[in-house]
Write a structure and sequence with these properties.
CATH architecture of the largest domain: 2-Layer Sandwich
Subunit structure: At low DSF concentrations, interacts with RpfF.
Helix content: 40-55%
Strand content: 15-25%
Radius of gyration: 51 Å
Distance between the termini: 171 Å
Keywords: ATP-binding, Kinase, Nucleotide-binding, Phosphoprotein, Transferase, Two-component regulatory system
Number of strands: 22
CATH class of the largest domain: Alpha Beta
CATH superfamily of the largest domain: Histidine kinase-like ATPase, C-terminal domain
CATH topology of the largest domain: Heat Shock Protein 90
Pfam families: HATPase_c, HisKA, PAS_3, PAS_4, Response_reg
Shape: elongated
Largest sheet: 7 strands, mixed
GO molecular function, one term: ATP binding
Catalytic activity: ATP + protein L-histidine = ADP + protein N-phospho-L-histidine
């Protein structure tokens, strides 16, 4: 029985041993499977105390990674042969140091595969000491991608560092309290601080108070935007403020910055670039000063032209007005010739003045075209009547023709069209000694509700040399200085005409041969008028005497301080059948209106004691308050608003606007033309019964 129990005990222990061996083998196979499928290579390295190195174990990954059989008895020799020649010595030294010091081993280097190609590997292991050897268990990994990424980052960092160290602008970073956390070396050149110094300088020492207030305001606005989920998170902020340098001097700085954010996207600071824009600011200030000076000069020029216009037109009104009245009297032939010479010379002077004013308006961009309905045929007929007289005096024939496809009823500015034609035809007559002057109008093109017309003015005059053609349209230029001496003129007419054509969406040119005449042409765009009943011709035939003008009934108050102009106005009004009285200033005009019933007031603007603007405002104010302006002596009291027409030497558009804004109903520039007075009276006064 005892022997049986011994055998039974033996078999139990044997079975347990077999189970333990099987379990150990299974665990070994499991660990081997894990090792073989792990990335990299698991290894055991033995450093024998005899000085010999062995690698008794290498996982299957060695075959894929190092292209060495993991069961090779010469594995260490094969591995050492594969280490890059430049890294081999340091590889051996690292192993020797770890063995000698019995410390963990770590190495990174390059490995050249037998099939070609180089990879980066990392090896690490920990030692365990045995009686005859030191055993290192460790792992080798392929770190090629990591090293390539690191190399790229190093190159990028190098480039950025070089950029930061050499750029003129300062690259910087700061926290939300504007305390600097980084500044590139260029901060020294720009602000006088070293990159280390500026990190210790607070915002209050880097910016004047006014700049700090601006920065804090912008910061508050930007932080408010941060609360809006729709707000752009990578927005760029630009700021221009004054800042201090280290020496206390002030310079202008431009900041271009964005928010720095943590991993959750929250703003934790700013990063950006600062540029010294002091010179740019000085240039801008210089340009602004130059602009202001230019505007002041332009304003002074405008004031001068306005004053010059007023001062010339006032006596011119007297000259032309008195000449017109004189020509309406019985004169002998010599007296009539003298009077017409005076009138012609005065009108020439007035033409020069108008040219200068028009050119000034065009240059300032203040000349606006009128858009009204007009009849082209009527305009040309009226225009040709005045040109024909001038042509006949020189023995020239003047003709005009309109092609059949040219529409007569147009929308545009007939006054400016007539001005261009008068200039071109007038020049043609002036510079032609014999032959003819011909105007032809043709259709250039139709487009939508408009047409482009081409106007040609041909003459048989002296012609123009080819090398002089380019000068014709320059201001104050003529083809030859002798022309000015012989024929007069400012040299502005063609320059103005060309610009007027441009304002009409057209252009102007010339074709000429010296000694063979010239052809001046221009194009202009006009709108079309569909119904003839809508057209009201603006042209009036030139009246040679006051006797041909219509008559009116009523009483007119002439408010004018110049005695000569008073006489001119009174003479014209008498010829028009009107009763008239004179007031020398605004105060007298108001007194007169309280005394007698007037149907209309002609109001000068510049007068002593009370000017026409102030007088008009007073009159309109009294009317608005319901006060009776016309007194108890009025034989036929006029109720309501009395028409007030400006009669002024101010010829600028602003003069007209000023008069109308004051409450006047119309505007007649001096010199006063009888025809213009008759036109205005036709709107406000009745004809005699």
């Amino acid at each position: 029985m005892r022997a049986f129990l011994k055998k039974l005990n033996f078999f139990q222990k044997f079975r347990e041993l077999k189970q333990t061996e099987a379990k150990a083998l299974a665990q070994q196979e499991q660990l081997q499977g894990i090792a073989d499928h792990m990335p990299g290579v698991l290894f055991r390295f033995d450093a024998l105390h005899s000085g010999k190195y062995e690698i008794p174990y290498m996982s299957e990954g060695a075959t894929a990674l190092l292209e060495i059989c993991c069961h090779s008895p010469s594995f260490f020799t094969d591995l050492l042969a594969g280490v890059h020649p430049e890294d081999r010595e340091s590889f051996l030294i690292s192993i020797e140091n770890a063995v000698r010091r019995v410390c963990p081993w770590h190495f990174e280097g390059r490995y050249v595969r037998p099939s070609g190609g180089t990879l980066w590997f990392s090896g690490a292991s920990s030692p365990r000491v045995y009686p005859d050897r030191t055993v290192f268990h460790g792992i080798m990994l392929d770190i090629t991608e990591r090293r390539q990424t690191e190399d790229q980052l190093k190159k990028s960092e190098y480039h950025y560092r070089i950029l930061a160290e050499n750029v003129i602008d300062v690259i910087w970073a700061c926290d939300l309290n504007l305390n600097m956390t980084y500044a590139s070396p260029s901060v020294y050149l720009q602000q006088g601080y070293t990159p280390e110094e500026i990190l210790k300088v607070g915002a209050q020492d880097r910016f004047p108070l006014r700049s700090l207030e601006i920065l804090q305001k912008i910061q508050a606005e930007e932080m408010e935007k941060e609360k809006d989920p729709q707000s752009a998170k990578n927005r760029t902020i630009r700021i221009e403020v004054e800042a201090y340098k280290k020496d206390g001097s002030i310079y202008w700085a431009e900041f271009v910055l964005t928010f720095m954010r943590d991993e959750k996207g929250n703003a934790i600071g700013y990063q950006g670039v600062t540029r010294d824009i002091t010179e740019r600011k000085r240039t801008e200030e210089d340009l602004m000063l130059a602009k202001e000076q230019a505007e002041a000069a332009a304003h002074a020029k405008g004031e001068f032209l306005a004053n010059m216009s007023h001062e010339i037109r006032t006596p011119m009104n007297g000259v032309l007005g008195m000449t017109g009245l004189l020509l309406d009297t019985e004169l002998d032939e010599t007296q009539s010739r003298y009077a017409r010479t005076i009138e012609s010379s005065a009108r020439s002077l007035l033409g020069i003045l108008n040219d200068i004013l028009d050119f000034s308006k065009i240059k300032a961009g203040k000349l606006e075209l009128e858009i009204i309905d007009f009849n082209l045929e009527s305009l040309l007929k009226d225009f040709s009547d005045s040109i024909t007289l001038r042509a006949q005096k020189k023995g020239l024939e003047f003709l005009y023709g309109i092609d059949l496809d040219v529409p007569f009823l147009l929308k545009g500015d007939p006054g400016r069209l007539r001005q261009i034609l008068t200039n071109l035809a007038g020049n043609a007559v002036k510079f032609t000694e014999k032959g003819e002057v011909v105007i032809r109008v043709s259709l250039e093109k139709r487009e939508g509700d408009g047409v482009w017309l081409r106007f040609k003015v041909q003459d048989t005059g002296m012609g123009i040399a080819e090398d002089k053609l380019s000068l014709l349209f320059e201001k104050f230029s003529q083809a030859d200085a002798s022309i000015t001496r012989r024929f007069g003129g400012t040299g502005l007419g063609l320059a103005i005409s060309r610009q007027l054509a441009g304002m009409m969406d057209g252009e102007m040119g010339v074709e000429s041969l010296e000694g063979s005449g010239s052809t001046f042409w221009f194009t202009a765009r006009f709108g079309l008028v569909e119904e003839e009943s809508r057209i009201q011709s603006q042209a009036r035939a030139k009246q040679n005497t006051l006797a041909d003008l219509p008559l009116f009934s009523g009483r007119v108050l002439v408010t004018e301080d110049d005695v000569t102009n008073q006489a001119v106005a009174m003479g014209i009004l008498k010829k028009l059948g009107l009763r008239a009285d004179v007031a020398a200033n605004g105060l007298e005009a108001i007194h007169a209106l309280k005394t007698l019933p007037y149907d209309l007031v002609l109001m000068d603007v510049m007068m002593p004691e009370m000017d026409g603007i102030e007088a008009t405002r007073c009159i309109r104010g009294m009317e608005a308050e319901g006060k009776d302006l016309y007194g108890e002596t009025s034989c036929s009291k006029r109720k309501g608003r009395i028409p007030i027409i400006a009669m002024t030497a101010g010829a600028m558009e602003r003069d007209r606007a000023r008069c109308l804004n004051a409450g006047m109903d119309g505007y007649i520039p001096k010199p006063v033309e009888p025809e213009e007075l008759a036109r205005v009276f036709g709107e406000w006064l009745a004809s005699p019964a």
